[in-house]
């Protein structure tokens, strides 16, 4: 059957309809987005410019930083612009593109965080075999599989949603095109699609989260036999990673591991994995990581020394 589609654009309700509150949110989220861009670009610059950070751990961290830049850029600029716009609209194909790219970069981040947990496990539990386990070929393969897996997930997620007919309803009770708010507008039975969405998004989030928790449980048990001094750095690294994982995964599981029922809390919860987590990642990975902090100091001291030589 041909899909009936009378909708050419959608209208976002956004986080708030109050004009005064929208101006406040505009300033807050503009600041958040600037922090995200500056923080992650600084991490990428630091990793690429310092040969000491050309290791598997920082290879995946650079992937994560790039994903956070792209992931937040899918929703944040449009949301920020809508705070000062009278009409918060997005075209039908713009909505498809936003949903596809959002789930693509979001799922890639889920897979890379899981791979980073495996990297930590290999480094801590098998230090003598670490360079063999996490060789350049293996790292490239794991990163490639993460991107390809995310591409497959996003394609299926978007296809499931937009193969449905959309008749007249246009108002999306959200600030971006996500699956559950868009499915509410479809003029067809969405029961089967809802179940497939839960299987596609919800189970990926839950499954990867359980794998992460299992890997860190194994790491903690392996660290019990070590001295307090030798435990300090691994615990700091794992602690920062686990903080990121919890802030990112728990809201994702809350949103996607249930049928297409929306709550007023959903938009606020979505802010955590679309904006808060990408903003906190650079702070967590730099403030709790001595290697990155030292590399940044070397980068800045090198720049200042070059400026001093130019003045002379």
UniProtKB/TrEMBL annotation:
G-protein coupled receptors family 1 profile domain boundaries: 39-285
UniProt keyword annotation of Hydrolase present: no
Highest taxon above the source species: Eukaryota
Keywords (A to Z) from UniProt: Cell membrane, G-protein coupled receptor, Membrane, Olfaction, Receptor, Sensory transduction, Transducer, Transmembrane, Transmembrane helix
Membrane topology type: Multi-pass membrane protein
GO cellular component, one term: plasma membrane
Entries under Gene3D superfamilies matching the protein: Rhodopsin 7-helix transmembrane proteins
Localization annotation: Cell membrane
Any one GO molecular function term: G protein-coupled receptor activity
Residue ranges of the TM segments: 23-45, 57-76, 96-118, 138-156, 202-223, 235-257, 269-287
Pfam families reported for this sequence: 7tm_4
PROSITE patterns, per database record: G_PROTEIN_RECEP_F1_2
Family recorded in the similarity comment: Belongs to the G-protein coupled receptor 1 family.
Listed PANTHER family: OLFACTORY RECEPTOR
The protein, known as: Olfactory receptor 4S2
């Amino acid at each position: 059957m041909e899909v009936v589609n009378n909708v050419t654009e959608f209208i976002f309700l956004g986080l708030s309809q109050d004009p005064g509150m929208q101006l406040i949110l505009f300033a807050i989220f503009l600041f958040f987005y600037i922090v995200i861009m500056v923080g992650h670009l600084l991490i990428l610059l630091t990793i690429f410019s310092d040969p000491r950070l050309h290791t598997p751990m920082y290879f995946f961290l650079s992937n994560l930083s790039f994903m956070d830049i792209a992931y937040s850029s899918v929703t944040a600029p449009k949301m920020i612009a809508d705070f000062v716009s009278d009409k918060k609209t997005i075209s039908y194909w713009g909505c498809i593109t936003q949903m596809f790219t959002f789930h693509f970069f979001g799922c890639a981040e889920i897979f890379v965080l899981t791979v980073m947990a495996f990297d930590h496990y290999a480094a801590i539990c098998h230090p003598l075999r670490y360079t063999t386990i996490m060789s350049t070929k293996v790292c490239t393969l794991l990163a490639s599989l993460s991107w390809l897996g995310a591409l497959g997930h996003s394609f299926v997620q978007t296809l499931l949603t937009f193969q449905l007919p959309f008749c007249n309803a246009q108002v999306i009770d959200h600030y971006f095109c996500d699956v559950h708010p868009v499915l509410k507008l479809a003029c067809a039975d969405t029961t089967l699609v809802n179940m497939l969405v839960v299987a596609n998004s919800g189970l990926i989030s839950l499954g990867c989260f359980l794998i992460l928790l299992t890997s860190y449980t194994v790491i903690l048990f392996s660290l019990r036999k070590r001295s307090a001094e030798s435990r300090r750095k691994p615990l700091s690294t794992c602690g920062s990673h686990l903080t990121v994982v919890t802030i990112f995964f728990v809201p994702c599981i809350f949103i996607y591991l249930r049928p297409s029922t929306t709550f007023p809390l959903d938009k606020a919860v979505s802010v955590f994995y679309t904006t808060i987590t990408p903003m906190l990642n650079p702070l967590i990975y730099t403030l709790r990581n001595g290697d990155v902090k030292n590399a940044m100091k070397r980068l800045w001291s090198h720049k200042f020394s070059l400026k001093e030589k130019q003045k002379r």
